[in-house]
Amino acid sequence: MGRFWTLLSNLHSIAGYASVIAIESPAKDDDEQWLAYWILYSLLTLTEMVLQSVLEWIPIWYSVKLLFMAWLVLPQFRGAAFIYERFVREQIKKYGILRDHQDHHSGSPNGKGKKKFVQFIVPKKGEQEAY
Question: Is the CB of residue 40 less than 8 Å from the CB of residue 80?
């Protein structure tokens, strides 16, 4: 039974495969689902790391986490997209986190934002550091 629960608790591994499939597909809906999933998964993992000593005393925590992660992951429920649209997006708009990003990149239909990113990452000739 222990191996079965270990397998089930690693249900998020399926999300990695599904994320690759979503990136390669032309549809945008599945991209949103999986990006939202990874955002929520990272928030849950961070919260769990901070509250680990408290969560150890809650006997049903791992069962609740398993059910919650299944709800987030399974495409029939689209739980990650639901939580992101209903709660996370509102908080992001409320605190203005996206404002700077939208101002710089939303009006670039010709890909100027991508070009700037590539120019930032790839060093110009003569600017390479000597090791």
Answer: yes
Give CA separation, 24 vs 17, 28, 33, 76, 84, in Å: 11, 10, 14, 20, 22
8 Å CB contact between 40 and 88: yes
Q: How far is CA 110 from CA 20, 42, 116, 117, 118, in A?
A: 25, 32, 12, 14, 14
Phi, psi of 46 (to 5 degrees): -65, -45
Return d(Cα 46, Cα 122) in angstroms, integer: 32
**How do residues 72-114 score in pLDDT, each as one tens digit?**
888 788 898 899 889 888 888 887 776 655 544 444 445 555 5
pTM over 0.85: no
